[in-house]
Amino acid sequence: MNETVRPLVRQRSLKTWASAIEQQPRVWLPLQLLGQGVGAWSVFWGTAIVGVVLWVQALFLLDLRGMVALACGLLICCCVAGATLSFRRAQQRDRRRGWEVDFQRRTLTPVGLAQQQAIDLGAEHSLGCYLNGGDSERSLSFQLELRHARKGPIAALTVVQLQSGNAADVEILNRCVNRLVERLGIRRSGAPLLAQKAATKRASYGAR
Fold this sequence. Notes:
By secondary structure, this protein is an alpha+beta fold. The protein contains six helices and eight strands.
């Protein structure tokens, strides 16, 4: 199992993921497509800015001086480092959790997902990709989902976050879904992704 998963977890961008889906006999589906979400540096700088603001406010409002002010600053630094470290550890755990797709065997095997079991795919299964949040101008989030004809949704596979939300990236993701469906020999459920994006955009304009 380790020899199968190890080379697959390193797909960190939409384009390399699409290439693997097109060419490899097995593909790794992470819980979240790596490289698309918020990075550890974003968390660090975000918490650091908040920490500085809180420290300055404490200095003026509580009139902190000397060692007390220094201790307060050190405490805030520890909180910033702790938040960043916690986020990095969560990212590392998520990189080892997901689904392994075997096209020849037509199976989905969970890795690091204690509540899930391996799934043998058949004619009753379908794969869909659905809007999962974001706005159509700056970012979009899509959920790759496996469904059963009678049971409905049975597995949430991969969340793909497109930071730009542009049509080219949405089309690449749409081709990924089509290729997965084709190679697995199952149906596709749901509307094409560009149609979903257009519907979201119309809805956002209508709400204004």
